[in-house]
Amino acid sequence: MSSLLNESDLAHENAVVWLESPDDLDYVRQALDKTPRRRGKPRYARDGRLVGYTELDEHAEADPDSGLHKRRVFFLLPHDRDTAPSGYYAEGAPGEAVDPRTIDPQKVGEKTPRSQLGSAAAIAMP
Hints:
The protein is mainly β. 9% of the residues lie in helices and 25% in strands. The chain has two helices and five strands, in the order βββββαα. A five-stranded antiparallel β-sheet has the order 1-3-4-2-5, with no helix packed on it. The protein is elongated and about 45 Å long.
């Protein structure tokens, strides 16, 4: 399980929306972003690309001070393994990286051999 998020942060998630197929990705980075809406594609202001996000149920309350909702986003940066397979993350992965096949609403994604070592290493493991 990722040490960066807690399942209590995800209590009001009711859907994961993928903008790209997670089957083609060894890992995605996950983070909580503050957004003005519960549903729909959130604004994305990082380098790289947004590959997915969660939507919240109607009971999710906005922060009383900011009026914003915490929603999980899934993204990749330009130097991540999918676009730079021989680069910095040819083996290993960033701290917030999880296997997208382990992501469900209200469930923190998990680190797996595939997310941490690459698909070739995961396939070779017994």
